[in-house]
Amino acid sequence: MYRSIVGVGALCALLIVTVYQTTAARIRENQERFLAFAVSQVLPAAHSTVAVTLADDGRLVEAAEAPALPVFLGYDADGELAGAVLTAEGVGYQDIIRVLYAYSFELDAIVGFMVLDSKETPGLGDKIETEPHFVANFERLDATLTSARDTLLHPIVTVKQGAKTEQWQLDGITGATITSEAIGQILNNSANTWVPALERNSDAFIRNEISEEQ
Amino acid sequence: MLGKEVSATDEFIKGLWRDNPVFVQALGLCPALAVSNTAINALTMGLATTFVLLMSGMSVSALRNVIPREARIVCFICIIASFVTVVDYLIQAIASSCTAVLVRLSP
């Protein structure tokens, strides 16, 4: 009996490993293509992008290799800084939700949003991608910094559906409370770390010509 | 099978209609309903289900005689789960647009 269980298990493991090995390269390629497409969706103004990362001394540098949560600076057709596109993740209702959002230096606000990966309940939690009033939150979600420029002036929070009164609040989804609150938290955490860093360093990246010594 | 004559067409119709896993046995209704929101998703889902059912059916029939009765369910679950994983990888490799939806079904 044990022999047959172990045998079937080994066969299945072999099958999965083989398929994984043969498809891994294609899957990675697809994901990269999807990421590039997503970036162009959340920040349509961006004609070219530069991947950046935060150095130990708090400065923004060009990323040598793609980190787990990539951050891009987007430049328009003239090579001027159009905004930043950031990846963020956090725990949702079922599993980790990965999102992509665009930050506008001009408006001090989040101006685009897209879900990269989520396993939220179909028909409820996945409404964060389709529900018109929730998507409308990201037309201009305030992410202004304090005068000390080290943290957000107003934390991004999700409120009950229909209770949104301020620009930094996310109008939640009834029936998807946990998921919509998770999105608020994910954005708040990520923006609190990244927006100060981006604002502090944006002068060095105002044009798409990054000097090597950085 | 129990000495009864089984015709291939009869079996085929049985699987397709009289014993259809989704409509009659009401199995897998949740993913089937959630994913078939567009034609392409429904088609992909259908193909994926067909692949898993076919491959696991074939493997189970092939291994039926070497697997003792006590270990039946464990082994069959293992086989079916493997094919679900395989189909998930294949879909991710082939169609990137369907992935976003279908990935949510894989256990």
Describe the overall structure:
The complex is a heterodimer of chains A (214) and B (107). Chain A is α+β, with helices and mostly antiparallel strands and 214 residues long. Chain A is built from three helices and nine strands, in the order αββββββαβββα. Chain A has helices spanning 2-42, 132-135, 177-201; strands spanning 48-54, 60-62, 71-75, 81-91, 96-104, 109-117, 141-142, 157-159, 169-171. Chain A has a seven-stranded antiparallel sheet, with helices on both faces. A two-stranded parallel ribbon of chain A has the order 8-9. In chain A, strand 5 and strand 6 (109-117) form a beta hairpin. Chain A is globular and about 70 Å long. Chain A starts with a helix and ends in a 13-residue tail after the last helix. Mean pLDDT of chain A is 87; it is low at 210-214. Chain B has helices at 8-18, 29-35, 39-63, 72-94, 96-102. The radius of gyration of chain B is 16 Å and the shape is globular. Mean pLDDT of chain B is 79; it is low at 100-107. The N and C termini of chain B lie far apart (34 Å). Chain B has 107 residues and is mainly alpha-helical. Chain B contains five helices and no strands. Chain A binds chain B through residues 1-2, 4-5, 8-9, 12-13, 15-16, 19-20, 23, 26-27, 30-31, 33-34, 117-120, 122-123, 126, and chain B through 34-35, 63, 66-68, 70-71, 74-75, 78-79, 81-82, 85-86, 89-90, 92-94, 96, 99-100, 103-104.
